[in-house]
Amino acid sequence: MTLKFISSTALVITAVTLLVVLAFHVRAGATANAVAVLKTTGMTCSSCSSAITKALKRESGVAVTEVDVAGGLVIVGYDTQRTKPETLAQKVSDAGFSSNIYAVLTPEEFKQATGREIGRSASATTGCCGVNKGGCTNNRQNLAQGE
Ligand SMILES: [Cu+2]
């Protein structure tokens, strides 16, 4: 009876471990456990945002990026084990845009502030937060409150 319980517990633990390992392998890239909001100036169009996206994607530990041209924000989901917000802001600066850290949130705080997951936005790389979400100003206020 006890032995049976122990062996089935061991089985469950093995299965869970396997699942976790597999999940990490499937997501070969970085996993975001923090969200850096970078206040960025000098962005005017979608080619600015793609230049920033490219620069950030080259940095190890960057899982997902969002560029809000109109709102002047660059939002980066990153792995705290592999990079840090200062480095991310520097990458954006190196790409030719003045950038500094506005807020650093957990993915949960980001979700609370914006009502969505990072990267799950139709306008993720192309531009503004969209009028139907209250516009950029509201979005920025929400993010600051989430700090
Ligand atoms: Cu541009």
From TrEMBL:
Record keywords, A-Z: Metal-binding
GO molecular function, one term: metal ion binding
Domain HMA span(s) in chain numbering: 34-100
Entry-linked InterPro entries: HMA_dom (IPR006121), HMA_dom_sf (IPR036163)
Gene3D superfamilies: 3.30.70.100
Organism superkingdom: Bacteria
Keyword field contains Metal-binding: yes
Pfam families the UniProt entry points to: HMA
Protein name: Heavy-metal-associated domain-containing protein
Organism encoding this protein: Geoanaerobacter pelophilus
